[in-house]
Structure formats: structure tokens, C-alpha cells
Design goal:
alpha+beta; eight-stranded mixed sheet; 32% strand; 14 helices; 38 strands; 708 residues; single chain; five-stranded antiparallel sheet; globular; Rossmann fold
Length: 708
């Protein structure tokens, strides 16, 4: 405590933190910290912008950390009465997890690979067995060992050489999503000399010696270079390609057929593919079809053809094919036409079959097609709201396709689908300890009319015997950006709400991708405010139809969903009891005007470029930080990580500081910053993440008046 006090005094900040130090003695709640104002003036498009909290961007400055620490002290004081409740929630959540478990193995080469967990250990263990699951286990990568002495650990790339002898992987121990490449000899267990920083994609050529990897720019964090590297050496290797257009990222991948390596170049609206034979790592990458603004295309390989998913004739994509000898657009032949009602999201090719991942009426669909007969079947799913997706499928010549299925009340399940017979076999469903009974719950898919009459899907979960009389507690989550679809996965934590009578809901608002690309387009760029009005309409519909009371309505959004939270709290603060605003993109104008920040340039095609007057004039009307007003707001918990690389910590910090200075209410506003190494998603260890969840749930439930 004395160290904190000294740092605050040295910083010169005007803080209520001295009261924090005496709160334990007096028994009273301390005053919240008050950040000093240092006006920073900029002028854009004739508009004078004054930012009193710009100084919080100076990460190395002691007074910045001191302010965040003081906010944490205040948050801890506010949340102290919930400590016993947090422990109870943590025990509940942990009790629904099978701590020692094994995922369904997948075949690759001569081995069966799988991931397992052990009770008491934070991280997974990556293993394999040769030939069958009766063979001796080989531990390939124990992430718990990798994490020793580290507060954060995340493994991204995990690629085994075709002969099964070498493992290339990447890890981040900071939370800044900055991954380091390593190579391990699986025969000896030795980690080799290979080392590269800021690594993204990792792909093996067929010679078992050559690794292609992409690297991000140190400042913008844009993946922009492709290297060809000799495994087992310390040298970075040869630079193969550098993308100059700052809107574009690069990534590399190898086809399931093992015949081609793709170099993909993509912005938010445009893409280009280049390719080499996987057994010719020294070959020069050829352009499949030159990039054309507004056209996205994504290839796969089968036999003598490339199959290409492309949006050249409509926003929802079609499927075409072309000979590998000359795959340009002049040779494209349509296989599946663009359908304005069905979004073609992705595809997987096998020797005799291909799988299409579609979206229709807001729900994911999987269609399996026979390349020989032309027969097409959709896999049937039984519930009104769910998630369906590909599992790990590494074998090219097979009749078995594995997929995952789950819903808010159906635990994660892996199925084997016989593509020849059209039948599914359940391989494993995650066990939920503690007497979980799915029959206690009801899932609904309802539709709220938006301001323009469009029906917005809402997925709802509640107890079957819940009284929907408009008096209960209601939780509403939203995102609505980048065309991302928020499908309904199983989350055992949620039953700590639902079992207490809370109705939980997800609003699938425009800006997301649930209803296809048109749904995304209707909530981006100069249509962005539709995202916010859709969410408000969803909340009003739920309250109006008895799902809960607005006096007990708590909302949550994170990242771009945090932008959503900031916007709707400015627009309709009267509609919500409280909000959890996680790692929020709330300082839209300052961030999008700063091209040195990660993501900014590439996202001009999602939000607009505020250096252009029309875009500026529109964006300034909804940017949460710029529209905080002297009025009453609901209770709020704002969360961030000091090492977040996607939404910098200073956005939520500035937002809270400004709101403290302006808001005209006595409601609670707390800021919690993870000052240990942590990332955009918070802590990395599974037990640490449960502790974060128990904190969040204690806050949400207390705000709803549910504390038991």
C-alpha cells in the first residue's frame, strides 16, 4: 500500500486513492480515482477535438500505471462484498468441468493426435500415438511446462512435418499476441535452433525441411511478409514476399490434398491467392487471379482442378472451378450459384467429396456433396439455436467427415459423418459433472422488429418453468461487427445465471454475419448505427414481451461489442440497469485517425476513414468516447488488459476517466485492468479464466438483485 501511495504522490495525479488506503479502517467506500485533465487539441476536417486524457496513452510513464492501479483498488473495494459470492460461483463453474479429460483423436499421417487436460493444470497437453490409441503415448507439447515461470502462455501454430519427425509451433508469453516460432525434434525431444519473432502462419513443404511462415510488422502488427526457412537453423530464411498495401494481411496454408501451398493476401473487402506445388518449395508463387477491389476469392484443390469460393456475382459467394494448369477467372465454371438467401461461408475438399458451410435464416448449415454423383445432402440439426462446424479433418482420401455440434443446452459434441451413407455417429459429448440436466432448460429463437421493420434474430435460454412476467432478471449479449456470426455454443458457466432464474439472450444484430453478407453490410461503414438501434430494439422487445424487467436488465459486449455497449449507453441509458463493457473499442475517432496503431488502416473498410470528411462526420456521431454527456448512466463495469494488442488499454481508461468527470448520477462505475501479462481475451490459464468469469458473474448477478 505504501508503494502505491508513493507512486501516486510522485505522479501528481489528482486521485481519490488516499481514501482507498483508509477505507479498511473507516468501513466506508472510498472515493473513485479522478484522472487529471491535460487538454490535447487536434483539428480534423475543420472539427476541433479536445482530448483531456490523451496522456493515458504514455504506457511507460509511472503515473499511467499508478492511475490504473488506483482504479483497481477502487474496483476491489466496490466488489469486496461479493468476495464470498465469487468463491461460490467459482466452485459452481469448476464443478461443471471435467478437469481430467481427453479430446477426440484425429488422424494425420501415421499418428493419432489428441489434446488432454489434467486436474489442477492450467493448460492442455498435446500428445499422439502411432497407429492406434493402444500404442504408447508421446507427449509433443505440454503447455504447462512451457508456461513455467510465466504469467501468460498461448500456443497458436502447431504444425507437424509430413514425416512426423518435427514440430513447428508458436507461443506468446505476453498477451500482446506476438508469437515466437520454435521447432522441436520429436525423435529426441530437443528444441532446435529455429527462432523467429512476430510469427503468424506456419506451413511445412513436403520435403520435411522447409517451413514457410508469415511475420507481422512490429508497429502495425499487420502480417505482411512470407519467409522460406530451413528447419533446424537459426537464420530467419529468405524473404519470399512482402505486401506493400497496408490494408492487406498475408497468410499461408497447405491444401488437404498436400499438393499445393497457398499464399493468401486479403483486406476486409478484397483478396488474392498465389500458389506453388508443395513439393517444390523453391518455386515462385503464381498469382491465381489478380486482386480486384471488392472481390474476395478463396481457393481449394481437388484432382486437376482448383475450386474457388468467390463473391464476384453476389455478396453471398458462389463456387466455381478451374483447371490447375490455368486457373484464372476466364476459365471459371460455376458449380454452385450465388444465393441471396444462403451465405456460402467456407468449404472443405476431400478426394471424392466436398463440404460447404452455409448460413440460412441466421443458422449455420453443413452440406456434403459427392463429386462423382453430384448428390448433395444437408446434415440435419435438431435445435432452434446451435453451433455447427468442422472438427479436425486431416485425411484427404476418406469417406469420414468429422464435425462439431453444440447448443446452449447441448454440450460440445463430435460426430463422424459417413459421406457415402449420409449417417452421423456420435464420437464424444463433453461430460458436464454435477448433475447437469438439459431437460430443465428451454432454448428459443425469436425475432425482434427493428426500427425499419427488419426482423432481428435473438437466441434465448431460460428455465422451462420460468415465469416470463416482465419482472425477472435479464441478460443480453451483443457484438455485431466484421460480419462475425455469434453462434450458440455451450457455455457451462451460463447456468450460474440461468439456474438462478435469469433469462439469457444473444441479439444477432446487423453488422454481424448471421444472415449473410447483406446483414454485415447493413451494419458497417455508413450504416454502423443500425447495429446499435438493432440492439436497442432487441432489448425493448425482450422487456416488452415479459422476458425480463429493464430494472434488472444487464447487457454485455466485448471488443467491437464494447463499442456497441458504449453507443447504446449513450443513446438509451434509461433502458439498462447495468453494463459489462469488455476491452471496448470506444475511442473510435482517435484510434482510426492514428495509422500507427494495429488494425487501423485495414479497418478503414469496416468503419470508414475519418480523414475523409463524410466518414468523419458520420463516425463522430456515434463514437462512444466523443459522445459521453453530462447525464445519468447505468452502473458499469469496464474491463481491459494492459497488454491488449487489439484494443489498447487507454481506450477504456480514457472512457472511464471522461465519464467520471461528466456523468450526473451516483451509480457505480468501475474499471478493472489486468496489469499482469494478459491479452484481449484476458488471462490464458483455464483456472484463471474461471476466476475472471466468477468476478464478472458476481457483478452481473448483484446488479440484477440476485445474490445467493
Amino acid at each position: 500500500m505504501n508503494r502505491l501511495l508513493r507512486r501516486i504522490q510522485i505522479s501528481g495525479l489528482v486521485l481519490g486513492s488516499v481514501m482507498v488506503l483508509t477505507a479498511a479502517d473507516t468501513g466506508s467506500l472510498p472515493s473513485p480515482p479522478v484522472a487529471k485533465k491535460v487538454p490535447h487539441v487536434s483539428e480534423v476536417n475543420g472539427h476541433k477535438m479536445v482530448d483531456n486524457y490523451f496522456w493515458l496513452r504514455d504506457k511507460p510513464k509511472p503515473e499511467v500505471r499508478a492511475y490504473l492501479e488506483a482504479e483497481n483498488v477502487y474496483t476491489d473495494a466496490v466488489m469486496k462484498p461479493t468476495e464470498a459470492f465469487q468463491k461460490k460461483l467459482y466452485a459452481e463453474m469448476l464443478g461443471r468441468i471435467k478437469e481430467t479429460d481427453v479430446e477426440v483423436p484425429y488422424k494425420e499421417g501415421d499418428y493419432l493426435y489428441y489434446v488432454r487436460t489434467e486436474a489442477g493444470k492450467q493448460y492442455p497437453i498435446r500428445c499422439r500415438k502411432k497407429g492406434s490409441m493402444d500404442a504408447t503415448e508421446e507427449v509433443l507439447l505440454d503447455v504447462n511446462e512451457l508456461a513455467k515461470g510465466q504469467a501468460f502462455m498461448m500456443v497458436a501454430a502447431f504444425a507437424v512435418s509430413p514425416d512426423g519427425n518435427l514440430l513447428a509451433y508458436s507461443y506468446d508469453n505476453t498477451g500482446f499476441r506476438q508469437f515466437t516460432l520454435a521447432v522441436k525434434d520429436l525423435r529426441t525431444g530437443q528444441v532446435l535452433a529455429d527462432h523467429a519473432e512476430r510469427v503468424g502462419s506456419v506451413v511445412w513443404a513436403n520435403d520435411n525441411k522447409t517451413i514457410f511462415y508469415t511475420q507481422e510488422d512490429a508497429v502495425s502488427k499487420r502480417q505482411y511478409r512470407l519467409y522460406r526457412h530451413a528447419a533446424g537453423t537459426a537464420e530467419p530464411g529468405a524473404l519470399v514476399y512482402e505486401e506493400k498495401d497496408e490494408r492487406f494481411d498475408v497468410s499461408a496454408d497447405k491444401t488437404r490434398s498436400q499438393v499445393y501451398i497457398f499464399l493468401m493476401l486479403g483486406s476486409h473487402t478484397t483478396s488474392e491467392a498465389r500458389y506453388i506445388p508443395a513439393d517444390q518449395p523453391m518455386a515462385e508463387f503464381k498469382v491465381m487471379e489478380p486482386r480486384k477491389q471488392g472481390v474476395e476469392y478463396y481457393p481449394d484443390h481437388n484432382g486437376e482442378s482448383f475450386y474457388v469460393r468467390v463473391n464476384d456475382t453476389g455478396r453471398n459467394f458462389r463456387l466455381v472451378k478451374a483447371p490447375v494448369s490455368d486457373p484464372g477467372s476466364k476459365n471459371w465454371k460455376e458449380v454452385v450459384a450465388q444465393d441471396p438467401k444462403v451465405m456460402l461461408d467456407d468449404m472443405d475438399f476431400f478426394k471424392n467429396y466436398y463440404v460447404l458451410y452455409e448460413r440460412e435464416n441466421g443458422l449455420p448449415q453443413i452440406r456434403v456433396n459427392d463429386l462423382r454423383s453430384g448428390q448433395s445432402r444437408r446434415i440435419e440439426f435438431p435445435e432452434p439455436a446451435y453451433a455447427a462446424y468442422s472438427y479436425v479433418n486431416r485425411v484427404y482420401d476418406t469417406t469420414e467427415f468429422r464435425y462439431g455440434y453444440q447448443s446452449p443446452i447441448t454440450p460440445a459434441s463430435v460426430f463422424a459423418y459417413d459421406m457415402e451413407k449420409g449417417t452421423s455417429t456420435l464420437l464424444k459429448q463433453k461430460e458436464v459433472p454435477g448433475g447437469y440436466d438439459r431437460t430443465k432448460y428451454q432454448v428459443e429463437q425469436i425475432y425482434a422488429p427493428a426500427a425499419d421493420g427488419v426482423k432481428v434474430p435473438i437466441s434465448v435460454v431460460h428455465l422451462k418453468d420460468a415465469k416470463l412476467d416482465g419482472k425477472g432478471a435479464l441478460y443480453l449479449y451483443g457484438y455485431g461487427s466484421y460480419g462475425a456470426s455469434i453462434d450458440m455454443f455451450f457455455n457451462s458457466n451460463i447456468f450460474s445465471m440461468v439456474d438462478r432464474g435469469v433469462v439469457t439472450a444473444v441479439a444477432h444484430i446487423r453488422g454481424g454475419g448471421e444472415m449473410g453478407k447483406a446483414w454485415h453490410d447493413a451494419g458497417r461503414m455508413m450504416n454502423k448505427k443500425t447495429t446499435f438501434t438493432d440492439f436497442i430494439a432487441s432489448a425493448e422487445y425482450l422487456v416488452g414481451h415479459g422476458y425480463g424487467s429493464k430494472e434488472r436488465l444487464v447487457i454485455e459486449g466485448r471488443s467491437a461489442g464494447g463499442l456497441l455497449m458504449g453507443a447504446v449507453l449513450n443513446m438509451r441509458p434509461d433502458l439498462f440497469k447495468a453494463a459489462l463493457v469488455g476491452v471496448p473499442f470506444v475511442d473510435v475517432m482517435n484510434t482510426m485517425l492514428d495509422e500507427s496503431l494495429p488494425l487501423t488502416v485495414g479497418e478503414f473498410e469496416e468503419w470508414g476513414n475519418p480523414k475523409e470528411k463524410a466518414a468523419f462526420d458520420y463516425m463522430i456521431t456515434y463514437s462512444p468516447y466523443d459522445n459521453v454527456e453530462a447525464k445519468s448512466y447505468p452502473d458499469m463495469l469496464v474491463k481491459t488488459s494492459f497488454n491488449d494488442s487489439q484494443v489498447m488499454y487507454w481506450e477504456p481508461a480514457k472512457y472511464v476517466a471522461k465519464m467520471r468527470a461528466l456523468r450526473k448520477d451516483h451509480n457505480t462505475l468501475i474499471l478493472k485492468t489486468n496489469l499482469s501479462p494478459a491479452g484481449h481475451g484476458g488471462a490464458s490459464g483455464r483456472y484463471d479464466r474461471l476466476k475472471e468469469a466468477s468476478f464478472d458473474y458476481a457483478y452481473i448477478l448483484r446488479e440484477m438483485g440476485v445474490e445467493n
